[in-house]
Amino acid sequence: MSDMYPKPKLVPVPSTNIIPERDVGKRPILECRHLGIDFGGLTAVDDFNMAIGRTEIAGLIGPNGAGKTTVFNLLTKVYQPTRGTVMVDGRDTAGKSTIQVSHMGVARTFQNIRLFNSLTVEENVKIGLHNQIRYSALTGVLRLPAFWREERKAHQRALELLSIFDMQDMAGYQAGSLPYGAQRRLEIVRALATNPSLLLLDEPAAGMNPSETAELMTNIRKIRDTFQIAIMLIEHDMNLVMGVCEGICVLNFGRIIAKGTPDDIQANPAVIEAYLGKRKEG
C-alpha cells in the first residue's frame, strides 16, 4: 500500500520576504503574514507580509495616511489584527497584550513624544528598566539591602544607556526641560532600557535639524552594532531612510507596493508614482 502513495518531494517555495545575507540561517526576529485590520467598513492595512532579520535596519515608508503607524500599532498590540499573524522570534503574538509583547522583546517610540516630563532624565530611563528589577514590593517598601543593590545597578545601567547619546550629564535634568531633539533621543534610550530584540522607531528624525539627523543616522547604526538587535523605522526623511536602511518596505493605502534595497526603491515606478503622482505625457 505504501508504494501506491509515494511521499511527495519537498521543494523550496519562493518567498516575498527579504532579509540581509548575514541573517540568513537565523530565525527572523519579526514575521508578518497576511496581516490586516479593518475599522468598521474601512480596511486600514491589508495583506501585509514582511520579515526582518535579527540584525537588520529596516524602513517602512509611504505617503501620509498610508497606514504605517497602524502597522506599528498592530505589531505592538495597541490594535488587535482583524486577520493575519505576527511572529516575534518565532512566537505567535495572537491574543497577547502590549505589555506581553514588550516582554517578548519589542520596544517602540511614538510620533508624539511620550515622556514623563516632570521626572528626571534618569528616572525616565529607569522606567524602561522596570522589567529587570529583581526585588519584591515588600523589599522596596522596607528599603532592604536588596533594594539599594538593585537601585545602584539601575543607576549605573541608566547612565550607560544615556552615554549612547552623550546624555549622561543630563541624568538629573527634568525631562520636560530638554530641547526637542534631546527628548527624542531620551525616548529611544528609554525604549532600549527594556532590553529589546526589535526596536520600532516612529519618525525618530521628526523636528530634528540636518546635523541632528546625521547624528541620529550614526547612532542608529551604533545601537544595532552595540546591542546586535533589529531596528525598524518609519520616517519621512528620505536621506535618513536611504542612508541607514538595508531593506525598505513601501506602503500605500494600507498595502505593500514595493520591497527592496534603497536602490531598488528609488528606481521603482510604483513608488515614484505613489509619492509624486503620475507624470503627464507630452
Word description of this protein:
- The structure is a single chain.
- This protein has about 280 residues and is an alpha/beta fold.
- It has two domains: about 25-105 and about 195-275, P-loop containing nucleotide triphosphate hydrolases (Rossmann fold); about 115-195, no CATH class.
- It has ten helices and ten strands.
- It has a six-stranded mixed β-sheet, with helices on both faces. It has a four-stranded antiparallel β-sheet with strand order 2-1-4-5, with helices on one face.
- The model has no long low-confidence stretch (mean pLDDT about 90).
CATH architecture of the largest domain: 3-Layer(aba) Sandwich
Q: Average pLDDT, to the nearest integer? A: 89
Top-tier CATH class of the largest domain: Alpha Beta
Number of helices: 10
**Structural domains: how many:** 2
Order of helical and strand elements? EEEHEEHEHHHHEHEHEEHH
The side-by-side strand order for the widest beta sheet comes to: 6-7-8-3-9-10
Terminal Cα span = 69 Å
Output the CATH topology of the largest domain: Rossmann fold
